[in-house]
Design brief:
By secondary structure, this protein is mostly helical. It contains 1 helix and no strands. The protein has one helix at residues 40-83. The longest helix is centred in the C-terminal third of the chain and has 44 residues, at 40-83. The chain starts with 39 loop residues before the first helix and ends with a helix.
Length: 84
């Protein structure tokens, strides 16, 4: 009564396709750089973005730790005031 019914599987195609692979040279020529479109500016931008993201992550972690410490201190102050 509550058994799910699976739809019928579509028939598989019977044609066989072949793919041609073009093999790249194993060693690039010595006269050309490996990545000709990557300049010093792009590398510097990646480094700067990495430093900024790391600084932001550290700031968030320090903020979370300080909020947790403040919550513990406030909780102990409230509990101490209720016991008096």
């Amino acid at each position: 009564m509550f058994r799910p019914e699976l739809p019928d599987a579509p028939p598989l195609p019977t044609t066989v396709t072949t793919q041609q692979h073009v093999q790249a040279p194993a060693i690039p020529s010595a006269g050309r750089p490996v990545a000709p479109y990557v300049g010093v500016g792009a590398v510097a931008a990646v480094v700067v973005v990495g430093v900024v993201l790391t600084a932001l992550l550290a700031a968030v972690a320090i903020t979370a730790i300080s909020v947790a410490i403040a919550a513990v201190v406030l909780r102990s102050l409230v509990n101490g005031a209720n016991k008096r």
